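Supplementary Text 2. Reproducibility record for the structural model of the 176-residue chain.

All settings were left at their defaults, and a single model was retained for analysis rather than an ensemble. We include the record here because the model underlies the residue-level annotations in Supplementary Table 4.
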Amino acid sequence: MRPSTVEERDRLLATFMREAAHLELRDVYAVEDEAERFATFLATGYRDHAAEAAERRPWMDLIRDARRAGMVVRRARVVSEPVTDYIRYEWAGTGPTVEAGEDIRWLPRRLASAIALPGNDFWLFDDATVVFTVFTGGGDVAERQLTTDAPTVQLCKSAFEAVWALATPHSEYTPH
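Retained model, structure tokens:
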């Protein structure tokens, strides 16, 4: 395992060949560029997709381009229920991402007890490279780690597929 950067992860996102899979395990993230949108959501109870469109466009374009090229982007979120305000915020903003082509599923944490999960969120690229995101207790990014170590890659692939098999598609999941 070696230190990595957000720029390296973004390069992998822009150059994967078949599939990028993302497993999220936290109930709260302190994403600096989302702070204003999150505060608005807390005040209003909804996400204004039109107002967020310009800010979210690079991600949506990346997803659309990947899908047009025949690649797959999947995201699975393991969440505690009742969900946190942050998970409600994420859920409320997921529709446009799904429309762009990202396949997203939700798994209540109580259903994940029998799954061997890595200790951190990760991106898995083409079943060959893993980028872990290590967070502080408050939800800030502490560091990123990259590995191509076969047993670690296999652990992440197995964990992701186990979560995916039990998880509910976004269109069918309602946060509790």
